[in-house]
Amino acid sequence: MLRKPILMMIDASHFEVSYVINPWMKPSAWSEDREGYFRAAQAASAALAKALAAAGAEVIRSAGAPGLPDMVFPANAAIVLDRRALVARFRFAERRGEEPLFLKAFEGFKARGLLDVVEQFPQGCFQEGAGDCIWDATRQRFWAGFGQRSNREAIGVTEEFFGAPITPLELISPRFYHLDTCFLPLSGGEVVYYPKAFSHDALAAIRAAVPKDMQIEASDEDAAGFCVNAVNFGRQIVMAQPQDGLRAKLGERGYTVTGVDLSPFIMAGGGAYCMTLRLDRVRETAAMRRAAS
Fold first, then answer.
1. DSSP readout, 184-196?
2. Residue-by-residue DSSP string for 120-188
């Protein structure tokens, strides 16, 4: 029997759009209907948790904190693999208050037996968690974004901590400031990506590692709708409301796509992947491969 994926989410009680650290954020728009957007955000968070559970995941909800609205995006909290967590260092001061709270949360997961090791990136080494370091189970490697929020130097720290290979990918658009906004490895080996977000060298690295028939290029509409920022396990994909074309492409490859209205969180520059962090991801061992064959 397959174990349920374990996903962390943060309660959205303190969510709002109150500052600008990416081009999607419009505090003035939020302020036009604070109560309405707040209610919509609570409903959207609950709908996402329900969709993930219906798709087969276990969702662990943790508390947020006043004055830290972006805590609802725990994908940026840490990189987690093989029961080891490496906690983020945020580039912008607006998010640095999250660091001690996430450290405490991960120490709590360690006490519960979900993790064995919890450490943090060194001071001044900016790296924003699984949002900029995505595990590719097919290729048994990380893809690491840099150039907008995370330092390239953080890649070496990550590689040493996890002992796993990493492919660096330079991000060139402020609109796609984390790798998870424009890059999605799927369980079947396909990769959904938005070419305009990447440097020439990054595109070359993706196209060299991923066979042509496994590349799915996202459209401008897919990317703007945060549909690439999706959660995948098995043949299930949960994302912000998808375009018909992307839904069809994924359906043809055997995936079941569940769309959720995440528009209040897109106003802050985040979608389904941003709002979750997988805690139970492990690399595949030779024994696991033999058992699956």
1. EE-TTS-EEE-GG
2. EPPTT--B-GGGSEEEETTTTEEEEEESSSS-THHHHHHHHHH---EEEEEB--GGG-SGGGTEEE-TT
Specify the 3-state DSSP secondary structure of 118.
strand
43 domain residue, yes or no? yes
The whole domain housing 26 covers: 6-284
Low-confidence stretches of the chain (pLDDT beneath 50): 1, 286-287, 289-293
3-state secondary structure of 84: strand
Q: Are 249 and 237 in contact (CB under 8 A)?
A: no
Contacts 24+ apart (CB under 8 A), 159-165: 161/84, 161/86, 161/119, 162/79, 162/81, 162/82, 162/84, 162/86, 164/81, 164/140, 164/283, 165/140, 165/141
226: in domain: yes
Q: Residue 81 in contact with residue 159, Cβ under 8 Å?
A: no
Do 241 and 14 contact (CB within 8 A), yes or no?
Answer: no
Residue 293 inside a domain? The answer is no
165 class by beta-carbon count within 10 Å (0-12 exposed, 13-18 middle, 19+ buried): exposed
Q: Is residue 187 part of a domain?
A: yes
CA angle 3, 159, 74 (to 5 degrees): 50
For the segment 113-166, what is each residue's pLDDT rounded down to a tens digit?
Answer: 999 999 999 999 999 999 999 999 999 999 999 999 999 999 999 999 999 999
Q: What is the pLDDT of residue 6?
A: 98
Strand partners, 143: 134, 167
What is the CATH classification number for the domain harbouring 48? 3.75.10.10
Distance CA(259)–CA(48), nearest Å, equals: 9
Catalytic residues: 178, 274
